[in-house]
Amino acid sequence: MPVRVTLDALIVKKGLKARDLAAQVGLSETQLSLFRSGKVKGIRFRTLARLCAALGCKPGDLLDYGFDAADLAPVDDEEI
């Protein structure tokens, strides 16, 4: 799945420290690090909203997508 987390670039652009952002959003540094590295399979909308509020951005500013035809293949109901 070619969805990439672009949070690092936004943190740099805003001149923030990940540690401070994690505290402001209410996440542990480990949780934020896992999200930043793309090692999580999902994120709660509430957490996404808190990140956007803290960074003054929209969800699309935190994520990027590169087309992959495999993304159009049928999925199991469990993945929805």
Summarize the structure.
With 80 residues, the protein is mostly helical. The chain has five helices and two strands; from the N terminus they run E-H-H-H-H-H-E.
Descriptive account of the structure:
By secondary structure, the chain is mostly helical. Helix content is 49%, strand content 8%. The chain is built from five helices and two strands. The protein starts with a strand and ends in a 15-residue tail after the last strand.
Largest sheet: 2 strands, antiparallel
Helix/strand/pairing category: mainly alpha
- Detail the poorly predicted runs: none
Number of strands: 2
Element-by-element helix/strand order: EHHHHHE
Main sheet: strand order: 1-2
In what range is the share of β-strand residues? 5-15%
Mean pLDDT over the residues: 91
How does the overall form come out from the CA principal axes?
elongated
Question: Distance N terminus to C terminus?
Answer: 14 Å
Number of helical elements: 5
Which percent range fits the helix content? 40-55%
Radius of gyration of CA atoms, rounded to a whole number: 14 Å
Which features does this protein show?
elongated; 5 helices; 80 residues; two-stranded antiparallel ribbon; single chain
Secondary structure topology:
Blueprint lengths: L2 E3 L1 H8 L3 H8 L3 H8 L8 H11 L3 H4 E3 L15
Helix pairs in contact: 2-3
